Amino acid sequence: MTTLSLLTPTGELTLGNHLGALRQMRTTQETDTCYYGVADLHALTLPRDPATLRTTIRRTQTLLLASGLDASTLFRQSRVPTHSELAFLLECTVSTGELNRMIQFKEKGRGNGSTRASLFTYPALMAADILLYRPERVPVGADQRQHIELTRDLALRFNHEYGQVFTVPEIVLPAAGARVMDLQDPTRKMSKSATELAGVIRLLDSPEVIRRKVSRAVTDSEVGPDAVRTDREQKPGVTNLLEILAACGGSAEGITAYGALKRAVTDAVVAELEPLQRRYAELAASPEHVDAVFEAGAATCREVTAPLLAAARAAMGL
Ligand code: ADP
Ligand code: NA
Fold first, then answer.
1. What is the pTM of this model?
2. Around Cβ 11, how many Cβ atoms within 10 Å?
3. Catalytic residue positions?
4. What span is annotated as the signal peptide, if there is one (predicted)?
């Protein structure tokens, strides 16, 4: 099996990314051939300060390695030109109507006339990212589902019109309960792209910062022996804390007060992130090693993806 996953360097990776993606990515590499990329081209679809972007890319690379993904091929999207080349070919097969229907474009573009053209054509690049590696399955969050469906449509249409070139991947939804919510607004997911970080635990947050953020997490005013319980509708904050606790290997057994729950969550999260933070500190001290890993990965990707790009070009008459 081939598995592919790309992370956009739009902010510092969070506990949500760790529990919902990185941990599974590490398990998957034990059985699959895995390509894990930093989607730095995708980051440019919105305006960003170059210096900040550079720092975020480096930090994301180092965190991927620190997450134990060294049995996978790690790469930066911008260092594998076949991605942008196939993206252009796919732009020549997708209609503006189809791109207009993408919910993410509607949300991020907001009908703004100065929106970058690349935000509009982003789904073609994402389709190229995926199809180049012929993965049998693509694990995605619900928010990316529409883009993967378009990827499948484009692959099917291309194969029909130009001949069998692409493998049509299956969509794999992450296991239930893998969704970590924002500590301050537990109705929305914890996100590295959030502007307000009080409810977001970042992977490099110190134990003290984690303690503060968890202790200020929104709960509710219920008191009594049954207050600590899972109820996604009525008690989203408490439910989120319980799910984080369980996902980090902790137990709420015997806990009846929110203060004690938050202390247990803090301890579990700190312990969960400790090995990763230790490896990060080691790797951050040798950036040339991180660069070498990603350069070697990019070289592998260029080689692996070249035949498919050549086939797509030839099929279209180039
Ligand atoms: P973010 O919203 O933090 O910018 P992305 O949308 O780039 O994250 O998603 C990167 C990966 O992390 C995806 O596999 C996604 O499913 C996972 N992920 C992101 N946020 C969460 C979350 N709060 N809980 C669980 N998984 C998440
Ligand atoms: Na995002």
1. 0.93
2. 20
3. 108, 189, 192
4. none
Ligand with an atom nearest the CA of residue 199: 1
Element (H, E) at 281: helix 258-284
141 CA closest ligand 1 atom index: 16
Q: How far is the CA of 22 from the centre of ligand 2 (A)?
A: 15
Q: Say how many CA atoms lie within 13 Å of 263 toward its Cβ.
A: 5
Positive or negative: CA dihedral 244, 246, 251, 254: positive
Phi, psi of 75 (to 5 degrees): -155, 165
> What is this model's ipTM?
0.95
| Ligand 1 contact via 189 beta carbon (within 6 Å) | yes
pLDDT tens sequence across 270-287:
999 999 999 999 999 999
- The DSSP call for residue 93 is T
Backbone angles phi, psi at 74, to 5 degrees: -105, 135
Block residue for tokens 């070139």: 165
